[in-house]
Amino acid sequence: MSQGTAGGEGAPQVLPEGKERQRKRRRRKKKESKTRLVRSSLLLPEAEPEKSKGTVLACNRLKTTKYTALSFLPKNLFEQFHRLANVYFVFIALLNFVPAVNAFQPELALAPVLFILAVTAIKDLWEDYSRYRSDKEINHMECLVYSRTEKKYISRYWKEVKVGDFVQLRCNEIIPADILLLSSSDPDGLCHIETANLDGETNLKQRQVVRRFLELDSEFDPLKFTSVIECEKPNNDLSRFRGYIIHRSGKKDGLFKENLLLRGCTIRNTEEVAGIVIYAGHETKALLNNNGPRYKRSKLERQMNADVLWCVLILLIMCLFSAIGHGLWVWQYGEKKKPIFDVPGPNGKYLSPVLASVYLFLTMIIVFQVLIPISLYVSIEIVKICQVYFIHQDKDLYDEETDSQLQCRALNITEDLGQVQFIFSDKTGTLTENKMVFRRCTVSGIEYSHDDNAKRLAMYQEPDSEEEEAAPKGGTLSQRDSICSHQSIKVVHRSQSTKTHRRTGSRAEAKRASILSKHTAFSSPMEKDITPDPRLLEKVNECAKHLEVMRSHEQPLSHLSPELCDVFDFFIALTICNTVVVTAPNQPRQKVRDRFELKSPVKTIEDFIRRFTPSRLTSGSNSSSSSSLATSKSMHRFGLSTLSSTSTDSTLLKLEEKLAYSAQMNNNGYSSQQGRTALGGAPEEGELRYEAESPDEAALVYAARAYNCSLVGRLSDQVSVELPHLGTLNFEVLHTLGFDSVRKRMSVVVRHPLTDEINVYTKGADSVVMDLLLPCSSDDPRGKHQKKIRSKTQNYLNLYAVDGLRTLCIAKRVLSKEEYGCWLKTHLEAESSIENREELLFQSALRLERNLHLLGATGIEDRLQDGVPETIASLRKAGLQIWVLTGDKQETAVNIAYACKLLDHDEEIITLNAESPETCAVLLEQCLQCVESKFSNNTIDGATGSMTVGFTPLYPPSSPVLSSLGLVIDGRTLAYALEPTLEDKFLALAKRCRSVLCCRSTPLQKSMVVKLVRDKLKAMTLAIGDGANDVSMIQVADVGVGISGQEGMQAVMASDFAIPRFRHLEKLLLVHGHWCYSRLANMVLYFFYKNAMFVALLFWYQFYCGFSGSSMIDQWYLIFFNLFFSSLPQLVTGVLDKDVPAEVLIAVPQLYKSGQNMEEYQPHMFWMNMIDAMYQSLVCFFIPYFTYYDSEVDIFSWGTPITTIALFTIILHLAIETKTWTFLHWSSCIFSIILFFFVALVYNASCPVCHPPSNPYWTMERLMGDPMFYFTCIISPVVALLPRFLYRTLQGTLFPTQLQLGRQLSKLSPETRAQLLTELNVKETMCQTRLFADSFSPSLGSNASDCYKADNQSTPLPASPQTREALLREDTEADHKTDQTAAASPQGAVLYEENKLPSSAAALERSMGFREVQCGTAEVESLPVGTTFPWSSAVDQADFSLLKWITSTPLFSHIGTVLQVSSSSLQNEAQDSMCVLGSALHVDFKGLKEESSNNLQDKMKGTPTDHCKNDNSETTFL
Amino acid sequence: FLVGLGQGWGCVRGLLIDYTGTEPSSPCNKCLNVSWDSTPPCTCTINFTLEHAFESNVFMYYGLSNFYQNHRRYVKSRDDSQLNGDNSSLLNPSKECEPYRTNEDKPIAPCGAIANSMFNDTLELYRIDNDTRTPITLIKKGIAWWTDKNVKFRNPTGDGNNLTALFQGTTKPVNWPKPVYMLDSEPDNNGFINEDFIVWMRTAALPTFRKLYRLIERKNNFQPTLQAGKYSLDIAYNYPVHSFDGRKRMILSTISWMGGKNPFLGIAYITVGSICFFLGVVLLFIHHKYGNRNTSADIPN
C-alpha cells in the first residue's frame, strides 16, 4: 500500500514510508539547502537536473498508517514491548525455558503472552486499517490538474497531484495541497478561503494572486509558466510563508502567506482559482500540524498501577516465603537420608538447600505469575473501547441543531469523567451560544426596549428546534415565511456546501467540518432578524424623510432636531463603524465588493487634498490609490462600484435587496421606494450576508439593517449605506482605527456625503467612551440636556449590565477640515515612523478619540445556551467546583455568571482587583483572614451541627467549600496571584469559594490556573471550552472537553471529549462518567481479587508439597483460567453494569460524589479484596483438602474440583457485585461455566499420553461421575462467599450508601420516586440555607442547633406549644446575637462595600435595607404565633445597616429551616394532629423565607451596578 | 438430605492398622531400617480383631504418610508415552526421567522417580478362626482406573506376547528387585499394565494418602465379607519410610455411594446448613425491620 504511479514528469518523488523515513529525509534535506525550488511540472527538460540533485519531494498521497504488510509484525511487537507488563510476562515465559526452574511446559507458558500480544496487535491492525481506508478515501478525491498532453485541466486523484502541478479549484472545493495562487476569477485577484478545518477560525480569509500574475491581461496559461519558485522548506507554521518567484526575465517577486492556499481549506465566494502546488502530501502545513492523539493516563489507572506494584510485592513475598520453606524442607532431610521422593538433578546429585531455594524462587515466580494480572491491561482497553462506544450511542448527547454528537477522542480516560472535582469553563461559546443578539438600545437618553424583539427571541426557544430539524432534510420552510424567508436559501446552500465539502483529515473530521461550515459561514436567523422598536423606527423614518427633503432643498442638515440627528448618526455609526464584509451567499459571481484593508487608506496629504474636492459622487475617479499597482482592471472595478455606475450586476443586486426588505418591512409601515418595485423577480435571492470579525459587530449591523439602514458594500475607502428615502449613500472612509483591547474601542473617520463634514464614529466599551465625552458646561441649556442624556444613558447602561447584556457606547465627533488636517499630519507621521510606530499610532488614535458626542448605547445579548443554569446547578449539587475563566470584561462576566446561576444573589462575593503585586498580596491576605475566621467558626459550628440527629449537612463539616462565597478576579490581579509567592494564598482563598470567576484572562493564564489547581490541590480537573483560546487550558487539564460550537475545531482537536453543548456535560459526567468510573473501579478490584484468590490456592498447596512449586491445578487451567474461563463475565459487567440507573443519577447529582471521593476504589478496598481473596481461597482449598484427606485421590483429580470451585466462587462473587442483570450477564456467566466444563472434558479425553506432567486423561469424566465432586463444588462457594454476601446484605439494609439508596430509588414506581426527589430537593435547599445561615452567623447557628436539639428531645405530644415557646425564645436570643454580630463585624471584616460606595448610594442601600426589614417584620408579625417579635427593636436602631440586614436575613430562613425540620421530625415520630400545626407553621415560615430571599435578591441585583461604577474599589463585600 | 448424607458415611466401616513399626513393641519394629535391596524380605505379622462384620465389598488400602508424591520434580519424573507402550520411548525414555532414565547405559523401563519408588510391600490377610489361618482371597484386578489400565498404560507391542522379549534392551528401575515384566504371573496384569504399578503411578495429591491395594469381594448373600473376629496381617516389609519419618498403614474399608469413610463433608454440610438457616432468619428479621425504612427514607445529604 505504498508505491504510487511515479509520474516522472516534473519533480521527482519518493513516497514516505512512515514518519521515520520522512524525518530522515527531512534531515538530509536540511543539510543540502534551506530552501525548496519548485518548477512547473510541465517543463520536462528543465526538471532533469533537479532530479540528479536528489531533492525528493513528497507527493500528495496521504499516508497516516503506521505499518505496512511487511513491517507490521516487528514494528508492532517493538511498540508493544514498550509496555513494561508485556516485557515482564515475556520474561517469565522465557524463564520457563530454563530447565532448572521451569514450572510448566514452556510452549504453553508462552500462550497467554502471545494471546495478549495478538489481541493488541489485532486491535492495532484494525485501527491501522481504518486509517488506511480513510487515507484511501482522501487520496481518491478528485481535483482538476493541468495536463501537458491534453492541454487542459483534467480530473485527477488527489494522490496524483505532485509538486509543480497546476491545480484548478472551484468554489466550495477543498484544497488538495498547499498551492501558490496564480490566478483567480475574481477581478481583484482575490480568493476567499475558509480555514475552519485548519485553525478553527470561521471568518473568510482572503488570499491574493501573486502580483505579477494579477497584471496578466489574458487568461492564465500554465504552459507559459516558466518561473521558478524558491520558498522555505516545509514547516508547520500556518501563519508564515516566505519565498520568492523568479521570472524568466530574472525579476524576483516576493511570496507571502497571502499567496498560499493551504490544504484542507475550502474555497469560498470565488468561482475559480488556479495555482501551482508548492507542498504536497505530508509536507503540507495542515498535515505537519496534525499531531496524533495524546496519551493520558487516568487517575484510576495510576492508582491501579500502584496496586499492581503491591501485587508484585505480594508476589515476591510469597515467592520468598516458598523459597525459604523449600530450603528448610530440603534441609530437614539432611545430606544422608534423602527421601525417595526427592528427585536429584539430572546428574544424579542433590541440590544444596540454598541453591534449591534460589531455583525455587524463580519457579515460584512462574507459578504465581497469575497474581500480576496479565490480561488486566487488555481487558481494560477492551472495556474502555466498549464504554466509549456506548457513550457514542447515547442519544441524549446528540445535538439535533448542529447534527453533532459526542466524540471521545481519548479512549483511555473515560473513568476520569466520574471523578472530576473542578470544572474550568470558558464563557463565550461554552456557557453562552456565542450568538450575539441585539436586544435593546438607547439613543440620546431615550431607551428603546425592543419588546417585540424580546418576544421574538423568546419565541425562538420553541420553534428553533423544529426548524433546525426540518432544515437538514432540505425542505423549504414555510412556517414563518416573511421572517424566515431567507432560510430556504440557506438550506439550499447548505446542502450544496455540505455535498462538496470534504476534508483532508479523517472521515469523522470531514463530517464535523461540514457541519461546522454550515454554521459558521452563515449567521442564524436569531441573530439576523431583529424586530425594530416601532418608536425608534418611526423616528428613523421621520429623520430620513427630513433628510430627503433637506437634500432636495439643499438645506443644511443642522435644521434637524438634535434628537433626530442623534438617531440618524447612531445608525450610521452602527452601520459603518466596523470591519464587516458584505457577501452575497448564493453565487460567488454576485460577490459584492468586500475588500477591506486595515490600513488607513488615506496615504498622503496629496491624497487627502485630492479626495476633498467638492464632487461628492465621483469617488470613482480618484479612487486609485497612490499605489503604482493600479491597473486598468482595478480602475474598471472602482468604476463599477460607484452609485452613478450603470453596471447591471450591482444595481440589480441592490434592487433585489430593497425588495427583500420591503417585503419584510411592509408591516412596519415602510413603503418601498417608487419605481423600483417594477424590477421584480425572486426578492430573497439578493440577501446579503455579513462576515464579521466578531459576532457583536455583525449583530449591530443586522440591527441597523432592521431599521432600513443597511450596509450594502464596503471597499477599502468607502462604505455604501442604504437608507430609506435617501437611497444609497457612500461614505468615504478616511481611516479605520481598529479595535484593540487597551483602548477598548474602535473608530472610523468618514466623510459624510450629505454634510461633507468629517465625522469620527467611535464604538467602544462604556467605561472608556464615557470618559472621552466632550465636557459640557452646566450653564447653557444644551449642555444641561447633554448631561442629562449622559446620566440617563449611564443608568440604562447599568440596567443593561444587570440584565447580562454586553454594552457598547456609540459616540461621534465632528471634525473640521482644519482639525482633521492637523491630526492627519501627525497621524501620517506616526504611520511612517519606524521606531515605536505602535506607540505613536496609539497616541494618534487617542488624540482623535476625544471630545466625543454621545449618541447612544446598545445592549447585545450573548444568549446563554439552553440548560446552562440547570446544568451548573446540577453539577454543583454533584460537588463540582465550577470556575469560569473568561477573556471577557468583569462586568459582563459577572452578569453572565449571575444569569447562569454560577453566582447567587445571596452569595458573598469577593472581588479582587489589584493594581500591583503588593496590593494583590495585601488583598489576598485580608480576604483569606476574613474568610478563615468565618471558616473556622463554621467548622466549629459544623461539629456541633453534626451532632444533631438525622440532619447531615450537605457538605461534610470538614469540607473546605463555603457555600456562600464567590470570588471574582480580573486578569491583571490573576497574573499577580499566580506568582509563586502568592499562588498558595490565592488557592487557599479560591478553594473556599463556591465559584470562582476569572475575567480578562489570557489563554496562558487559563492554563496556569488549571495547572495550579491540578498540581497543588491534586484535584481532578476538567476544562471545557470552544475556542482557540481555550486550547492550552484544555490540554493542561486532566480531562479536556471541547465544545464543537461556533468557534471552530481547534478546541475540539485538542480535547479528549467533544460535546455539542454545555448542557451535555451533565449527562456526560453524572451518568457516563459515574458509570465508567464505577464499572472500571469495580472491574479492577475484581481483577485483583480474582487473581489473588486463584494464586493463593496454589500458595496454600505449597505447604503440602514441600514447597516444591508443584501445582495441583493442571497447567492448562492455570494458564487459561484468566484468559478464557473467567474473563467474559467481568468484561460484560465492566461494560454494561449500571450501578444506578441514568434517571436517578441525573435526578440526584449528589451520587456523583462517590466518584470524587473515590468511594468505589479506595486504597483500603484493595486490601479488603485481598483479604477476602485470601479467605475465599482458604475455603476453596481446605474444604477439598479435608474432604480428600487421606484418600486415594491423585493430584489432578483433586486439583480439578478445586479449579471448578474457584471458578464458581469467582463467578458468584461477580454476581454479588453486579448491580444490574441483563441477559448478557446471565449468558456470559453460564457460558463461562459451560466453557470450562466443555474444555475440561475435551481436554481430558483428548490424548492419553500428552500434556505431561499432569496427563489428566479421563479425570474430569471420572469426577463427574462422582457425587463427592458435586458436594464439594456446592458447599465450598457457599462458605467462601457467605461473609461477603452477609456484608453486602447487612450493609445494604442497615447502612446503605447513597448509591445503594439511589438504586433502590429506581426500583420504586415513578410517582413515588418523583415525590421522594422533590422532598429531597426541598431538604437540600434547607441544608443550603442552613449552611448559609451558619456561615454568616456562626454563633447563631450553633445556638439554633442547640435549640433544635432541645426541640428534638421534647416529647411529641406536648411539643407544639413548647416548640413554639422554644422558638420564640430562640428568636429573642438569636436577635440578641445578631446585634452582637453586627456590632462585632465591622472591625472583623475588611472592607465592606458601603465603606467604599459613595455615601448617597450607601444611604440608598440603607434605606432599601431598612424598608425590607420592615417588610420582613411585617411578614413575621403576620404569623399565627401571636406574640410580638423583638425585631422591631432591632430595626429601630438607627445604625441598622445593610450588613446587618444581610446577616439577619438568613436568620429568617434559618428559623424557617429549624421549624421545618422540627415539624418534619414531629411528623416522623408521632403522626398525630400536632403535625398539622407543624406543617402550618412550616408553610408560614417557608413563605417568609421566600419573601425575604426575594427581597434580598432584588437588592442584590442593584448592587452589581454600583459595583461597576466603582471599578477602583479594590475589595468588595456585598 | 443431610440425614441421607450422614447415613452415607454412617454405614461405612473402616479399619486402620499402622505397621510402620516405629514403636519398639510393634511386630514390624525389626524391619524398620530395611533397605530397598534387602533379600530376603523382612516379614512381620500383625494380629487384629474386627469388632463388627464388614457386610459389603471391602477395599484394602495401603496408606503412606509424609510421603511427598506431589513433589514437583517427582511428579514430572515419568514418561507417559513409554508407559503407553511406545517402542521408541521404551528404548529412549524422555529426559524428564533423569536421573532415573538409564542405568548402565540401558534405558530403564519404566523410567523415572515415580516408578523407581514404587511401593513394594506385600500384604496378606488371614482370618484366624480357632487358631486356623484361613487366607482371605484378595483380588488384585480392578483396583486401577479402567481407562488407565486399558488406554493409558500399555505394554510395548511387538512379535508375540512374550513380555520378556518385548522389554529386551531395557533394565529394571534401580530400586526394583525384579524387572517390570515379572511383576505378576498373569499376562494381563504384568508389565506396564500391572494394576499395582498403575495405582502407584497415579501420584497422590497430598503427602498423606492411601492407595487401593486389593479388593475383597462378598462371596454370597448369607455371609458378610469379613466376619467379626480375629485376623492377622502378614507383611513383607520392603519399603523403607523411616528415613523420612514416613508411616505405613493398612486400611480396610467398605464404600458407600459417597465414597470412603470421611465424615468431614457431612459435618461441613450440617454446620453450613444450620449457619445459613440462622442467618436467613436473622436477615429476614433485619429486612423486615429496616428494609422498609430505606425504601421510604431518602438519601441523606
Automatic annotation (TrEMBL), chain A:
It is a multi-pass membrane protein. Residues 58-107 form the P-type ATPase N-terminal domain. Mg(2+) binds at residues 426, 428, 1026, 1030. Residues 1-37, 460-480, 494-513, 1494-1518 are annotated as: Disordered. It catalyses: ATP + H2O + phospholipidSide 1 = ADP + phosphate + phospholipidSide 2; a beta-D-glucosyl-(1<->1')-N-acylsphing-4-enine(out) + ATP + H2O = a beta-D-glucosyl-(1<->1')-N-acylsphing-4-enine(in) + ADP + phosphate + H(+); a 1,2-diacyl-sn-glycero-3-phosphocholine(out) + ATP + H2O = a 1,2-diacyl-sn-glycero-3-phosphocholine(in) + ADP + phosphate + H(+). GO terms for cellular component: endoplasmic reticulum membrane; plasma membrane. Its main location: membrane. The chain crosses the membrane at residues 84-102, 108-126, 308-330, 350-372, 1084-1104, 1116-1136, 1166-1189, 1195-1216, 1223-1243, 1268-1287. Its cofactor is Mg(2+). Residues 1-10 have a biased composition (Gly residues). Residues 1494-1512 have a biased composition (Basic and acidic residues). ATP binds at residues 426-428, 697, 739, 763, 806, 886-888, 1000, 1006, 1029-1030. InterPro entries: ATPase_P-typ_cyto_dom_N, ATPase_P-typ_P_site, ATPase_P-typ_TM_dom_sf, ATPase_P-typ_transduc_dom_A_sf, HAD-like_sf, HAD_sf, P-type_ATPase_IV, P-type_ATPase_N. GO terms for biological process: phospholipid translocation. It is an enzyme of class 7 (translocase). Residues 21-37 have a biased composition (Basic residues). Keywords: ATP-binding, Cell membrane, Endoplasmic reticulum, Lipid transport, Magnesium, Membrane, Metal-binding, Nucleotide-binding, Phosphoprotein, Translocase, Transmembrane, Transmembrane helix, Transport. The active site is at residue 426. SUPFAM superfamilies: Calcium ATPase, transduction domain A, Calcium ATPase, transmembrane domain M, HAD-like, Metal cation-transporting ATPase, ATP-binding domain N. GO terms for molecular function: ATP binding; ATP hydrolysis activity; ATPase-coupled intramembrane lipid transporter activity; magnesium ion binding. Catalytic component of P4-ATPase flippase complex, which catalyzes the hydrolysis of ATP coupled to the transport of phosphatidylcholine (PC) from the outer to the inner leaflet of the plasma membrane. Initiates inward plasma membrane bending and recruitment of Bin/amphiphysin/Rvs (BAR) domain-containing proteins involved in membrane tubulation and cell trafficking. Facilitates ITGB1/beta1 integrin endocytosis, delaying cell adhesion and cell spreading on extracellular matrix. Has low flippase activity toward glucosylceramide (GlcCer). Component of a P4-ATPase flippase complex which consists of a catalytic alpha subunit ATP10A and an accessory beta subunit TMEM30A. This is Phospholipid-transporting ATPase.
UniProtKB/TrEMBL annotation, chain B:
It is a multi-pass membrane protein. Its main location: membrane. It is found in: Apical cell membrane; Cytoplasmic vesicle, Secretory vesicle membrane; Golgi apparatus; Membrane. It comes from the Eukaryota. The chain crosses the membrane at residues 264-286. GO terms for cellular component: apical plasma membrane; endoplasmic reticulum; Golgi apparatus; transport vesicle membrane. PANTHER family: CELL CYCLE CONTROL PROTEIN 50, CELL CYCLE CONTROL PROTEIN 50A. This is Cell cycle control protein. It comes from Zonotrichia albicollis (White-throated sparrow).
